[in-house]
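Lecture 7 notes. Example A: sequence first, then its structure tokens.
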Amino acid sequence: MTRSTRSAFLALLPLLAAGCGGAQTSPAAPTGAAPAASASPAPAAAAAPDTGGLPAPTAAADAIQPVTITPPPPEGNPFTGVGFYINPAYVKKVESSIKADPADALLLKKVEQYPTAVWLDSIAAAGTVSKVLDDAAAQEKKAGKPLVTVFAVYDLPERDCSAVASNGELTAANGGEKKYAKDFIGKIAAAFKAHPKQRIVAIVEPDSLPNIATNLDKKKCADAADIYKHSIATAIRELSLPNVSLYLDAAHAGWLGWSGNRMKIVKLYEEVLKDAGGADKIRGFATNVSNYDSLKGGDLGKLQPSDPCPDELTYVQQLDDTLTREGITGKAFVIDTSRNGKAGIRTNSGSWCNIKGAGLGERPQASPAPLVDAYFWIKPPGDADGGADPNKPGFDSNCGPDSKDSAPGAPRAGDWFSSYFVDLAKNADPPL
């Protein structure tokens, strides 16, 4: 968001007795501002993992239970039977890195063929939607087949209430809720309606409802809870159009993997979807946005052994089971694979910012696994999660020199981090 989400999860670790904790910032990272925006394992019988100075988790491990899932209707998958829109603004960023690092030009050039989400992180950005869709129409004509264009909708009032680096432009004090509905969502909806023959996907507000599910101990999140719920219901009502498929943010395995947290978020989905007009307004949910959790296996199980969801594919199944048991059935998932190619790179499951050693993950593709509509690069690889310099705007302590897992030299969230992009390409798994 995010754009890449942050210290939320760390603040939540004390809640593990009731479920689990984390925000895309805590053991996992928030999405970070527009495009963004997510302790070494303890020796046997030794101290608990580093939790950022907070009390250690006390909950016993949740057992992995047999799941009851309700597969989504395959004919509704917006990623099938189409090509993907390639954002020229992202290609331009890649070209800047090629110019700065010509020795790796052949490798970096390969990234330009893959799609990324277009992040709408401000009212100004919302005004560009028609231009993006016009460009997508031109690409469709050239390709001779329909394309799907993916947007991340990311300008919620009091955005990323538990984070620092990716706070947004709208607040309760400046009339943010009304501005969000009229000037932000209203602009986006008008542009979507003006392009009724184009296939569109919208990832709705990374790091939003998960913060309300787990971070109400933070005053800013508690104060923003009703605004979040009302605003997301508004976004669903206005953007639920015949040519648009909506996916609500569902954080990731390291944040909502525990059974207690999954139940909390599902109860919030029930409330918001009822306000929005029903669960049929959305296609499903997006996970791992701007984060680093592996699809299968990985190191989360070692870093957080009490979490019954050690990876994203397990989390998707467990979350679908919880949704099904609460009557929300037939939903699909999109998993962000933009930076989760390499496992074993974090010393703390709460590390989320510009993780050193990360690599591009699975390429964007439709129907890659049960319940999953697509793997997609929602977070454009190379957009920073947050700033590393305490003396510059956009600094977040989770990204700074005291963060063992974060790459040094990062600019503010959403800005291009060229050296990090090059490393992502070199560390890609599968290789480019």
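Example B, a different protein, same format:
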Amino acid sequence: MARNAEQISETLPDLEAYWMPFTGNRYFKKHPRVISRAEGLYCYTHDGKKLLDAVAGLWCCNAGHCHPRIVEAIQRQAAELDYAMSFQVGHPKVFELANRLTELAPEGIDYAFFVNSGSEAVDTALKMALAYHRLRGEASRTRLIGRARAYHGVGFGGMSVGGIAANRKMFGSMLPAVDHLPHTHDLSRNAWSRGLPQWGAHLADELENLVALHDASTIAAVIVEPIAGSTGVLLPPVGYLERLREICDRHGILLIFDEVICAFGRCGDSFAANRFGVIPDLITTAKGLTSGAVPMGAVLVKRDIYQTFMTGPENAIEFFHGYTYSGHPLAAAAGLAALDVYLGEGLFERARALEKTWEDALHGLRGEPHVIDIRNYGLIGAVELEPIAGQPTARALKVFRDCFDAGVIVRTTGDTIAFSPPLTIDESGIEQIVDTVCSALRA
């Protein structure tokens, strides 16, 4: 059993002053779970408990924790150049990282704009889309289309196109001129799908209904996660993304893929766009970009969008947007080292090779108590649980706590248990994850 705050207060600092994000603060400070160090697949609590990390930090430590090559690169960079501003000044590694990223991106996506998080990447991409149409003489294209149950970060732009009620309800009316597509999750037709579900490609046609409602001349962009992660791992039906691409092309609408979770091997390729064979106009990314070691995000952009901005006097600022820490030297060094690890150790291919093992193991939980669906793709997975009547999220939280106490970290979103283990996971690690979840369900 987890020890309470009074029992471990001598080994921790005072917990009260820190207002924790996306956390039940009062419960946590009575029952703290504090990670003090990590290595490879494992995290260790302040009192030495060893935990297999089945969520790679928070969908981000794709190369595992504290990879020596990434650690060394950050240390070396900190001693050489701690900071350089990115307004009118640059430093070598940020240009090198942009080149490396665009080499991995789908064909035609040739530019990278650096930010510090997935939330910032989304807001940046939305601003790019609006400005792009204005520069082309279509300033009426101001409407943004998101999707129900989507998560696009916590900036006002991302919340507006996002579709998770709990993330929106306390903050007012959001941005104007936003509409939403339906999500792709249908338990009555697609439960227990292995990989992409067969039913539901037609849901992309709802975009045609929004075009009919608002007129294409008012719509700037559609933003979707290829696989919606934080809402519970909702998979695109076979053909769905292709149809979205076709409809956007037909009406001159930009298509943005939010790959903050999906990129850097999570789907068995550098980007989900490459795995699915659908090329968007912009890609937002973060998390695995540095394997979680230093905060960094990016927007990857098609050449014609970038060139549209390159007008006016040569010394004029083309896009009035950016952040103090855009392309931070430590982040750029970590990103380059992470790419070296991913490619040098074949981690994208490793994720693809383990996909069937991962799928079979997860689906082995079918028939266990309270399980109503299992979903998987690449090294992403979800086990959806039947909620306790009148106590939404309670069952999943109990599983999370029991798994933690048994030595495995999982993630909960609503009453779904989500998984995204490091790409360095092996068959024994997968077995440990599934066995631990099984025991928690039976308890």
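Note on Example B: The domain at 33-63+346-442 is CATH 3.90.1150.10 (Aspartate Aminotransferase, domain 1). The CA atoms of residues 364 and 434 lie 8 Å apart.
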